[in-house]
């Protein structure tokens, strides 16, 4: 995000005209949090300056948490990835009231390696317990969190964010936070990127406004606690979990400024654009945030939404076309229906994966309906919100995602596309034919 907030919970806590005075006001410590290399180009450079009661370094050594007893399927056998070309769809994932945020992360798909800062991971989360006196951070990447159900009260080092279904938030690499569940059980999806950061897509000929507008992103304001009791810090470090203790709260930042911070966005604020003449446009016009790869115009991860919208295109098959994509497409549904799938199998809290070059498109029923629809202006998706994590990487599916979760629909293709019948009008045509143009 381009914004660079300045925020202080106490007057005078932010130094004026410099970042690191010899003795910061009120006896605070100065700490710099870098989101990019020191030498990243100016327009990419992300960092924040924190003024806190004690530096983040003041903790015991980290000890590895034994993952075999953990339900966090990150690096266990459950997280082994398999790349397969089948179209995959999942029934709604279960709630789990027995775990907190950290233990409710289930790796479902991914590619790459946090060690090399390459790739991404897709999780579904389900939790029903508040985190205790502990803060979690991922050294592996940035979390884009998409709640499908419930309310996340997220206390971060830089302040609090209340995030509900139909809102999203991004917690960048390294930022420590704790998730409380004021309304009980929560469920949703996460895309973690091991390289770079999410940013707003370029608007090109769209002009200076549209899609997600910068003013609608919200950053936390500084807030600190006074607490000198024992706290834990849990680190996700190369997909293993480590824990350290400290004798004071990690939430002690009294003031901060910079452009590296967690933020939230209400998907209802999205300014959805579309065709007002003919044909179905590429879904890139629905991109909320994009994490670039090293190739210009090619995303490590695009976060794309399908909000309620008007379809008015004339003489057009209005749902998505049948297609095979150079990119992989992981989709989820926050609420309602998705217009390309009316067979009933794509349900809120479920998911689908159409990997690189895996053919997909409207199911047979959606094709039938759209081919015969009267093309009056039509509002689709009222009360609904589907989304897609689209990546240039071939994502693998974890063992948990393929087997253990027991949500894979084994009849997905059989219900969606194999029922399609040939509609080719053979009558009066030769049995086979070729364009004779080049003979
Ligand atoms: O496959 C999908 O349902 C996602 C999608 C939607 C769309 O409008 C165009 C292309 C696309 O991949
Ligand atoms: Fe697609």
TrEMBL record:
<feature type="binding site">
    <location>
        <position position="323"/>
    </location>
    <ligand>
        <name>Fe cation</name>
    </ligand>
</feature>
<keyword id="KW-0479">Metal-binding</keyword>
<dbReference type="InterPro" id="IPR011051">
    <property type="entry name" value="RmlC_Cupin_sf"/>
</dbReference>
<dbReference type="GO" id="GO:0006559">
    <property type="term" value="P:L-phenylalanine catabolic process"/>
</dbReference>
<protein>
    <recommendedName>
        <fullName>homogentisate 1,2-dioxygenase</fullName>
        <ecNumber>1.13.11.5</ecNumber>
    </recommendedName>
</protein>
<feature type="binding site">
    <location>
        <position position="360"/>
    </location>
    <ligand>
        <name>Fe cation</name>
    </ligand>
</feature>
<dbReference type="InterPro" id="IPR046452">
    <property type="entry name" value="HgmA_N"/>
</dbReference>
<feature type="binding site">
    <location>
        <position position="329"/>
    </location>
    <ligand>
        <name>Fe cation</name>
    </ligand>
</feature>
<dbReference type="InterPro" id="IPR046451">
    <property type="entry name" value="HgmA_C"/>
</dbReference>
<dbReference type="GO" id="GO:0046872">
    <property type="term" value="F:metal ion binding"/>
</dbReference>
<dbReference type="InterPro" id="IPR014710">
    <property type="entry name" value="RmlC-like_jellyroll"/>
</dbReference>
<feature type="domain" description="Homogentisate 1,2-dioxygenase N-terminal">
    <location>
        <begin position="7"/>
        <end position="267"/>
    </location>
</feature>
<keyword id="KW-0585">Phenylalanine catabolism</keyword>
<keyword id="KW-0223">Dioxygenase</keyword>
<keyword id="KW-0560">Oxidoreductase</keyword>
<dbReference type="Pfam" id="PF04209">
    <property type="entry name" value="HgmA_C"/>
</dbReference>
<keyword id="KW-0828">Tyrosine catabolism</keyword>
<dbReference type="Pfam" id="PF20510">
    <property type="entry name" value="HgmA_N"/>
</dbReference>
<comment type="pathway">
    <text>Amino-acid degradation; L-phenylalanine degradation; acetoacetate and fumarate from L-phenylalanine: step 4/6.</text>
</comment>
<dbReference type="InterPro" id="IPR005708">
    <property type="entry name" value="Homogentis_dOase"/>
</dbReference>
<feature type="binding site">
    <location>
        <position position="360"/>
    </location>
    <ligand>
        <name>homogentisate</name>
    </ligand>
</feature>
<dbReference type="GO" id="GO:0006572">
    <property type="term" value="P:L-tyrosine catabolic process"/>
</dbReference>
<feature type="domain" description="Homogentisate 1,2-dioxygenase C-terminal">
    <location>
        <begin position="269"/>
        <end position="424"/>
    </location>
</feature>
<dbReference type="GO" id="GO:0004411">
    <property type="term" value="F:homogentisate 1,2-dioxygenase activity"/>
</dbReference>
<feature type="active site" description="Proton acceptor">
    <location>
        <position position="280"/>
    </location>
</feature>
<dbReference type="GO" id="GO:0005737">
    <property type="term" value="C:cytoplasm"/>
</dbReference>
<feature type="binding site">
    <location>
        <position position="338"/>
    </location>
    <ligand>
        <name>homogentisate</name>
    </ligand>
</feature>
<keyword id="KW-0408">Iron</keyword>
<comment type="similarity">
    <text>Belongs to the homogentisate dioxygenase family.</text>
</comment>
């Amino acid at each position: 995000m381009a914004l660079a907030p300045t925020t202080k919970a106490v007057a005078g806590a932010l130094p004026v005209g410099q970042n690191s005075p010899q003795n910061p006001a009120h006896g605070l410590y100065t700490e710099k949090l870098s989101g990019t290399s020191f030498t990243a180009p100016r327009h990419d450079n992300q960092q924040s300056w924190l003024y806190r009661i004690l530096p983040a370094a003041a903790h015991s050594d980290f000890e590895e948490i034994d993952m075999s007893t953990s339900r966090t399927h990150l690096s266990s056998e459950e997280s082994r990835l398999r790349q397969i070309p089948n179209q995959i769809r999942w029934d709604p994932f279960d709630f789990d009231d027995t775990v907190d945020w950290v233990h409710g992360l289930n790796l479902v798909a991914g590619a790459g390696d946090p060690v090399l800062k390459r790739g991404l991971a897709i999780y579904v989360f389900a939790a029903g317990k508040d985190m205790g006196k502990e803060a979690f951070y991922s050294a592996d990447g940035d979390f884009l969190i998409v709640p499908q159900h419930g309310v996340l009260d997220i206390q971060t080092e830089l302040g609090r964010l209340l995030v509900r279904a139909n809102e999203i938030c991004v917690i960048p690499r390294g930022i420590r936070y704790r998730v409380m569940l004021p309304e009980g059980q929560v469920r949703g999806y996460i895309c973690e990127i091991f390289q770079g950061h999410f940013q707003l897509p370029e608007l090109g000929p769209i002009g200076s406004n549209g899609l997600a507008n910068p003013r609608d992103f919200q950053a936390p304001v500084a807030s600190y606690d006074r607490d000198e009791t024992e706290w834990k810090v849990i680190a996700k470090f190369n997909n293993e979990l480590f824990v350290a203790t400290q004798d004071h709260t990690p939430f002690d930042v009294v003031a901060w400024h910079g452009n590296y911070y967690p933020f939230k966005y209400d998907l209802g604020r999205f300014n959805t654009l579309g065709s007002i003449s003919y044909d179905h446009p590429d879904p890139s016009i629905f991109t909320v945030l994009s994490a670039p790869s090293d190739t210009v115009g090619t995303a490590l991860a695009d976060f794309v939404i399908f909000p309620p919208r008007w379809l008015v295109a004339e003489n057009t098959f209005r749902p998505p076309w049948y297609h095979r994509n150079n990119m992989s497409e992981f989709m989820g549904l926050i609420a309602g229906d998705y217009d390309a799938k009316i067979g009933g199998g794509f349900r809120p809290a479920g998911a689908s994966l159409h990997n690189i070059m895996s053919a997909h498109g409207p199911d047979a029923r959606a094709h039938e309906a759209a081919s015969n629809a009267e093309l009056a202006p039509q509002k689709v998706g009222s009360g609904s919100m589907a989304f897609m994590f689209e990546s240039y990487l071939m994502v693998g599916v974890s063992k948990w995602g393929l087997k253990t979760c027991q949500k894979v629909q084994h009849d997905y293709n059989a219900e969606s596309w194999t029922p399609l019948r040939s509609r080719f009008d053979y009558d009066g045509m030769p049995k086979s034919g070729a364009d004779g143009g080049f003979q």
